[in-house]
Specification:
Maestro/Maestro-like HEAT-repeats domain-containing protein; 57% helix; mainly alpha; HEAT_Maestro; 8 helices; ARM-like; globular; ARM-type_fold
Amino acid sequence: GLRVGLRGPLRKLVLQSVIPLLLRLQDPSRDAAESSEWTLARCDQALRWGLLEDTVTVAHYDSPEALSRICHCLVQRYPSHTPSFLSQTQGYLRSPQTPLRWGAAVLLGFLIHHTSPDRVHQDLLDSLLQDLGQLQSDPEPAVAAAAHASAQQVALLARAQAWPRRPGLFNLPLPLLRPGLWHRSPPPRPPPVYPNSPFQPRSVIGRWGCLG
């Protein structure tokens, strides 16, 4: 019922809840999926994300483009919360529910793709790689494929963190270093590519008034 942007503890609480809400869009329970969609729509309105259409599209069509735009918004607007977003998503990789494991693997890949290299510590990246590596043996092929694609994104981010550090670079005489080497940006990271989701939510568009 708030008419102004969220601030202080309430804003922090919403940011702590956005990852579980996004993942619950994949919940096998129709009520859980639809209530998450409704709540995300209210969060979008209160925090003025401008992502209502993307949220509804993700809820009903598993659109990777829409999910990518949501992840870009989250990590760009709240960079200090990025490690928390990643850690929360990581926890769902062990979910006993197959659609949630798939959703966590996909969400993790897009979050990592839009994350700046200086926002994540190596320890977290190592932990993510370990869990995604284990998930590549998942009995559900779609989950294993999503984990493989997201693990590649983690590896690309780790490589970007090391740029332009190369073996022997610091031992070279200064005149031998190419001009501008220290100011060059790492090469762009290609976005992750996932197969279509076999786990379609069972919500009904418009039931919660999200398109009103």
